């Protein structure tokens, strides 16, 4: 069997979150990474295709949350990459109603029809409300405010799922209420290619870097205390200290990627793949915010405030990488501490060692201590107790 390719960090997925993790790692001097991407190009849910001679976006189309006090980082990236966008004025949409022949309705007729529809919906609600108050049995059954996790979870699914979000919507509160449609022949993905130029080798707008492996589907992640081993569909093996996994909730809920040992909590029996998570905080449904050992989860679904948005993916990529860098620093600290602890009795001996033996001992600082101690035991005559 082919021996595993080795690197510091394996990144699974080259959508906005996966690419952002590679960017932040590179900014912190860590370029020894491999990016494994199942699709034939980068972008994930940011993807364009040619249709009838024009480019259409199959995934994300808007940059939502612009014009506020705080700048949306994806809007910043769009400006830096000269992405062509246009303002979406939703209040105008009601006046721009076309018939099947392509003829626009006069704005007065459109406005009247809209007003009539809203008025009739309000009337309907009012009359239903009135009926409720006359019907004592319905009044008695009026549900109380949801309190328990299960009540909160069901309330969230019934009222906020799909288009609605829990008010206030962080995207608009934090970044502003305006939205811009990406209207660029190069696609929304152009922003990702421009970003990738900073940390991957490119030539004539194409990524040529061998650290990016396209058409590479990850099927297994083995993880243990000291590292991870990733197996891809074609049987290739990749070994690293850490893995960052940016696959979506849908992929995580399928059995596409198996984990050894299994993840602590993930229902995957038949008919259980689609489930509701009940938490004491309403709307708190982002499961994978904490790493599991050496597996770090990222992606829009791990963003507490901006899940479902491109900027959610981008910001989660930054947060996850910062958490990983922090863990690496802690890991280094732990290693140094255990080296110092193990070296204490050794250093006490160095006074009586020959110069060659003393060099051997000091070089232990740079090496894998337990293994070195084991290999050097007979030469240095170390006491059994420190092995
Ligand atoms: C139709 C649609 C419209 C949208 N519209 C908007 C919008 O207008 N504005 C907005 O802000 N957001 C929008 N979004 C949401 C936005 O596109 C996503 O939130 C964001 O792109 C997610 O980025 P990500 O990196 O978290 O995940 P992804 O983009 O899903 O990246 C994950 C990557 O992992 C790869 N992968 C998965 N499994 C494996 C595996 N086993 N091995 C290797 N690789 C794997 C995938 O191929 C993918 O490239 C829309 C989404 C969709 C689907």
Automatic annotation (TrEMBL):
Signal peptide: none annotated. One of its GO terms (biological process) is polyamine catabolic process. Residues 16-266, 284-324 form the Amine oxidase domain. GO terms for molecular function: polyamine oxidase activity. Gene3D superfamilies: FAD/NAD(P)-binding domain. It comes from the Eukaryota. InterPro entries: Amino_oxidase, FAD/NAD-bd_sf, Flavin_monoamine_oxidase. Pfam families: Amino_oxidase. Belongs to the flavin monoamine oxidase family. PANTHER family: FLAVIN MONOAMINE OXIDASE, POLYAMINE OXIDASE 1. This is Amine oxidase domain-containing protein. It comes from Anisodus tanguticus.
